[in-house]
Structures
1.
Amino acid sequence: MKKQIITAFIGIIVAFLAGFIIMALQGYNPAASYYQLFSYSLFSRFALFTTLNKAAPLILTGLSAAIGFASGAVNLGQVGQFLIGAMGVTAVGLWVDLPAPVMIPLLIAVALSAGAFYAGIAAFLRVKFNMDEFITTLMLNFLAGFFTLYLISGPMIDEKMYSPMTPMINRGGWFPQFGGLNFAFFLAVAALAVIYFIWNYTKIGYEWKVMGRNALFAKVGGCDNQKNYVRVMLVSGALAGLAGAIMVLGGMQHRFVKGIDANYGWDGVMIAIVANNGVIGTGLYALFFAMLQTGAMGMELETSVPSEFVLVLQAITVLFVVASRESAHLLFNRISVLLRLRKVRSQERVSKGDDSDAAFD
Amino acid sequence: MVNAKLNRPDIELIKISSLVKIYPPATLAVDQVDLTIKEGEIHSIIGENGAGKSTLMKALYGLIPYNSGKIYLRGKEINFGSPKEAVRAGIGMVHQEFMLIPSYTVLENVILGVEPTGYFGVLNKRKARERVEKLVEEYNLNLNLNARIEDISVAARQKVEILKLLYKDVDILILDEPTAVLTPQEIEELFSRLKRLKAMEKTIIFISHKLDEVLELSDTITVMRKGKKVTTMVNENLTKSELARAMVGREVVFTVKKDEARPGDEVLRINNLTYTDRYKQERLKGINFNIRKGEIVGLAGVEGNGQFELVNCIMGLIDDYQGEILINGVRIDNLSILERRKLMAYLPQDRKDTGSAQDLSLISNSIMTHHRINPGLTGRWEALLDPGASRELTGQIIDKFNVLIPGIDAPISSLSGGNQQKVIVGREFMLNTDFVLLDQPTRGLDVGSIEFIQKEIIRKRDSGVGILLISADLDELFNLSDRLLIIYQGRIVAEVDPAEVDKEEVGEYMLGAKGVAS
C-alpha cells in the first residue's frame, strides 16, 4: 500500500515535469499554465465542484473496469454499456413522468439494469459458447454506438434541433444540484462505497478476488466460478450503465446527445489500469483525471495552451505510474540483492580469515 | 566402484569457488559454495529441497546468472551466458522436466538443433541416424529411434534426454533428480547406465535427496544445506545416518511411528468407476475400492496411470464419468464441488496452481472453503464474511501447524514451500470432514516439513478420518498406508498390505510386470 502511494506520487511528479519541459520547448509559459490548470479545477468552489461533477462518470466507469479486471473478467465494454444505460434512462425518462422522489430511483434502476443487460450478453456468450468477453465486449461497443446513433437520428430525434439528439427527458428525472455540486457525484461515491464493501467484507467479494488471482484455486475450493463470472460482468456493466445515465440525468442537457459518451469508457479502463484495479485507487485517480480535464479548459482560456495538452499529461502519468510500479519492484529487488551480497561478502572475509589461521596450526 | 575412481589421476575438471546466488529480493540460495568435480567421477550433490543443489548446477550450466564467485573448467575461468555455451564446452544437463517434442520421433528429438546437413542445407537424415544408432549401441541405451516421444515411457524419455546430450559430444552430464519419475526397476537400470557412462570416461554430476541412491552410485558426495556446502566426502564406508545427519543437521526419524489402524465405518466407496476422455482414451477402467474411517489407503502408481483422473472424478472436476462415488453412503456424483467439499477435504498436488492464490494474503488463502462451510466465518448476514473470525482461523492454522510467517497479512508467496504446504494442510484438516483426499502431500518439501506433515496425517487418521493418499514416493506410501492399492493403466491391479510386501514387488505391479490379466 505504502509502495503504491510512493509510485503514484513519483509517476505524477515525473509526468508534470515532463509536461513542464514540453510546454517550455513549445514556447509556452509552463508555470503559468500549471497555475491556471489548478486554479480552474481546484482553487474555487465552482472549479472544485466542476471537477467533482466531472469525476462522477469516471469513478463509475473506472470501477466498472477495475472490478472486472480484478476478478478476471476482462470487460472492455464500458463504452457500450455506458451508451445503453444512457439510452435506457432517456427512453424511460421521455415516456414516464413521475415526481422526482419516485422517478429518480426508477431511472437509476433502469440504468443499472440496462448496463447489466448489455454486459450480460457478453457473459452469456462466454458461458454458452466460450467466446472471449475481451472480444465480444469490444464488438458490442460498436453495436451500441451505431444503434443509439440510429435512435437519436431517427425514431427518437428532436426535430427542433440541428444535430442528432433526443428531446429533453421529463423534469422529474433531473438530478438535483447542491450549490453546483450535482447529485451524480454522491451517487458515484455511494457506488464506490458499495463496491468497496462487497470487495472487502462479503463472501462473494472474496470469491471474486480469488477468482481474479487463481480461478482454479477458487473452483477447487468450492466457489462457483461460472456464476461469479456472470455476476461480476453484470455488476461491471451496471456501473458503466449508471455512468451513462448520470450524463443524461445529471448533465446540462438532460437528453441523449450525439457524442455523449465522450471518452468516459476508455478513461475508465485507463483509470483502472493506473489504479492497479484497486477500489480506492480508482476513486482517487478518477478525481485526478477529472481535475486535469477540468483544468484544461481554463488553461486553454488563459494561456492558450491547447486543452488537448492534458491528454499528453494523462498519457505520461499512466505510463510513468505503471512503469514506476513495475520498475520500482525491479529496482527494489536489485538493491536488496546488492545489500545481501555485501553482507555475505563481509562474512566471507571474516570466515576466510579464520580458515587461514587454522591452516597455520 | 570406489576403487575405479582411485585408479584415475585426480584431475580437477570443474572448480567452483565462492559462488553466491541471491534470488531477488533477498533469498540467499547459494552461499559461497566451493566445489571441485574431478574428471571421470560420479559426484553426487545431495541436500533437502531448497538446499541450493539445483540452483548451483543451473548457475554452472548458464541457465541463471550468479552474483559473485568464479567457475573454472579445466583451469580456465568460465561464465556461460546460456546453456548453449555450456553444451559447446561439453557440459550437459538433464532437467526434472523433460524438454522433448511429444509428436516427434526419438531420432528427430535427438538431432533437433544440431541436424547434420548436406549441400544447400538439406537435412542428411541417414548420416544422423547412423551416428545416433552408433551412440545407442555404444551406451547400450536400447531405444527405438522411430518411436514417437508421446508413445514411450518416462524412463525412455529420460534416456532420450541423455542421448541428446551424448549426441552433442557432452562429456560432463548433470542429472537433476533423475530418479524422481522412475520406478525401482527403472532406477536400477538408470544406475547401471550411469556406471557405464562413467566407464566411458564421462563425468557425472548427480543431484538427489535420496540417500540410498547416492550411496549406491557415487564416488564422491557433496552435502548441501541451506545454500551452504556442508562437506564433500569420498564414498567409502559412509553410512546412511552419517549422510542424513550432514544433510539435515540432526538425526531424522525415517519412519513415522504409528499404531495399528482401527478402521470403523466405510467413508468412501467407489463402484465401477470408468472414465473415457475426449480423445476416446479410457483413462479409468472399472475402479472399485473403499476406505473406512480411521485408515489410510495409499494409491501407488507411476504418474499418468489414472491418478489424476481419479482425483478429478472424486473432486467433481470431471463430471462425465460412469460409476458411483459415495461418501458416508451419499452418492456425490451429481453434487457440485461445494457440496462435495462439505464431505471431504482435499490437498491438491500442485501447491501453487491449485492449492493457493500466491498473490493473496495468508488470510485469503486460509479461509478458502471455510468461508462457505464454516458458520463461524459468517458475519451478521449470510452474505457477509467476518473479518475477525477469518483472522482467528488463520491464527489457529498458524499455531497448530507450526507455520513460520513474516506476518498474517503477508502474501502466501512470501512463505517457504514447506510453510505454504503447512498452511494448506492446516486449512483442509480444519474442515473436519470424515474423508480426506491427499494428492502428493509432501512432494518437494524439506525433510522437516515432510516429517511434520506425515505425523499430522497419522494424527488425522487416529481421530477417525478415512484418508486416500496418492503419492509418487514409495517410502511415504509404505510409511503411512494401512492398505496399499496399485494403479496401472487405469486399473487397480493389486491391493497389498504394506507390512507384508517389499518395494520391489510393488514396483513390479506399478510397471505392469505383475498382476495384469491381459
2.
Amino acid sequence: MIKFLLNGILRDKSRSVLPVIIVSIGVMLTVLLSGYMAGVFGDVVTQSAKFDTGHVKIMSKAYAENIDQLPNDLALLGINEVIAPLQEAYPDMDWVKRIKFGGLLDVLDEEGESKGQGPVTGMSFEIYSGNDSELKRMNFEDALVEGSIPAAKNEALLGVKFADQLGLKLGDEMTFIGSTMNGSMAFTVFKLVGTVRFGTAVMDEGAMIIDVADAQHLLDMENGTSEILGYLDNDVYDEEATLEISKVFNARYADSKDEFAPIMIPLKKQGELEELITLADSMSALLIAIFIFAMSIVLWNTGLLAGLRRYKEFGIRLSLGETKGHIYKTFIGEAILIGIIGSIIGTIIGLIGIYYLQEVGIDISSMMDQIDAGFMMPSVMRGKVTPNLFYIGFIPGLFAMVLGNMLSGMGIYKRQTASLMKELEV
Amino acid sequence: MNTETIISIENLTKQFPEGDGFFTALKDINLTFKKGEFTGVVGPSGSGKTTLLNIIGSLDKPTSGKVNVLGLDIGNLSHKESANLRNKHIGFIFQVYNLLPVYTVFENVEFALLLQSYTKSERKKMVMESLEWVGLGDQASKRVTKLSGGEGQRVAIARAMVKRPQIVIADEPTANLDAANAHAILKTMKKLNQELNTTFLFSTHDEKVMTYLDRIIHLRDGKLESEEFISHENDKV
C-alpha cells in the first residue's frame, strides 16, 4: 500500500508539487529565521560575556546597585581574599579583574599644547599583568589594526575610529583626566601603542584599553577592582552552572549588612540579558507557531482542493471496500510523506542560507549610532548553524501538513456510500 | 449450476427524505438470487434499479424489510462490515470505468487486493490471471489513460473479478461503448460467469445486454413489475 501511495504522489504532480513547495518555503523560512536569531542572540550573549558580564560577575553590593554609573568609589577592595577561595573551589574557571572608568582624553601637539579633547570610556584587562587568558578571550591579536599590544606601564590601545577622530598616531601621547576612586583628580599620560577594531561601536568609537594594573594605579585602587569576572572552563557558557555557582557564593554573604560585601551575579541576570534570552526563546516558539498556523491554513485549502480533485478516487476506493477510516489514514499518511519531503528540502535550503549568513553576516554598523541596546551588540549580525536547525523545521513542516490534511480530509467521513453509484456515473 | 441462494430479499422498502415527507424508491420487493445467475434489472429512470443494486451491494441499507447477502443481514451491518463484504465478495463495474488515472493497468487491478492480506507474488499471479481473462495480459504496464474505452472497461472487469467475488454488480456497463465493444465486454462477462460461477447483476437499459441475460427483472415506480427467465441452453460463449 505504501508503494501504491508513493507512486500516486510521485506521478500526480498536482498532489505533491504544490504542497511540497509550500512546506519547503515555510520550513526554509523557519530554519533561516531560527538560525539567524540564534546567531544574533548568541553573538550578543557571547559579546556581552567577553566584554562586560563574564559568565558570572562579582561586585560590591553597592556597586551592583549603581552599576549604570560605573561607581568606582564603591569598588571591591581586598580582592585577593575573594578570588583565592573561588580559584580553589572552581579550579577550571578563570577569574579576572576588570575596571571600567570614564574621563576625558586630552591630546597634545609637538609643543605640549592641547590640540584636541574627547570623552573616553576606559576599559582595563589583564593584558600584561596576568596570564594570557584575557589576551586569548578578547582576541587582541586579531583585533589589532596597527601597532602592538601594551607590554609596559602606561601603554594604551585606542579604538581605531576613536584614534582617527582624535588625529592620533602610534607613539603619540595623550593625557587621561578623570578622578580616582577616592574622588581626587587623576592625571596620567599614556602612550598610544596600537589601534583595535572589535566590531562593536562602544569599543571602536570611544574606548581606551589599558592593563588593569595601570587602571588600579590610575584610580588609586591598589588590591581593588570594580568587577571580578568569572569564565567557565574553555569559556563555554552553561546557564545552570552559573546559577548554581552564584547561589553558593551569595549564600556566604547573604546575612552581611556590609554594602561593600561581594555579590555574584550570573550572566543571565545582568542588564537586559535575561529579557533578551527570554525574548529569543519566545521568538523561536512564536515563529514556529506562526508558521504552523499560516501553513496549516494554506495547506488546509490545498488539501480541500486535493480532496475535491480526488473525490472520484475516494468514491472508487469506497466502492472497492476500503473503509472511510482507512482512506483517511492513507490521506494523512500521504501528508506525512509530503511533509517529510518538503521539510528535508526546506531544511537543506535553509541551512545553506544560514551557513551563508554565518560566514558573511549582515553589516549593521551604519545603524549602531541610533541603537541604545543596553547590552553589547556586534556590528555584523550573523546567523549560526546550530544542531536544532536540523530538526526544527520538521515541527511546522510536518505539523502544518498533517493538520491541514486532517481538517480537509474530514470530508471523507461525510461521504454517503449510497450516492456512490450516481456520483461515479459521471 | 449450483442452485444455492446467495441473495434473498423480503418485503424490501426503501424511502428517502423529500421535503416534509418521503419518496419511496422501492416498495415491498421480494426476490431471491442463486449462485451463478446472470441477471438484469431493467426499468425506466426512477424505477429503483440503482437503489436495489446499492442495497444488494451493501452501499445502502433498507428502510424496512430484510436483505440477506451471503448470509449477512445488510440492514444490520456496520460501515466496516459493509466495506469488508464489498472488499471480499462483491465486485463493481460502473458505466464509466472509474479507473485511477495515475496508475498502470496492473496497479489498478492490484488495488482491490492491497486491501486484503495477499503476498506480493500471490497478488501478481491473481492480477495477471485476471488480465488474461479479459485479454489484457500484455497491457499490464500501460497507463490506463492510454487505453481505449473498450480496454478501460475490460480493466474495470478485471479489477472487479481479481478478488474472485461471488457477486458482481454492473451499473450500465455498456452505456459508453460502441456495439462491437459492448458485445465483446458482455461475452467476456458471460464467459467469467460460466467458468467461475460468479453471480452477475446488471442494471441496464441496453437491448444488447438483455440478449445475454438468463433472467430479467422489470421494475417500475419502485415495484416489481415482472420477471422472466430466459433459457440459453444451446448458447456457448
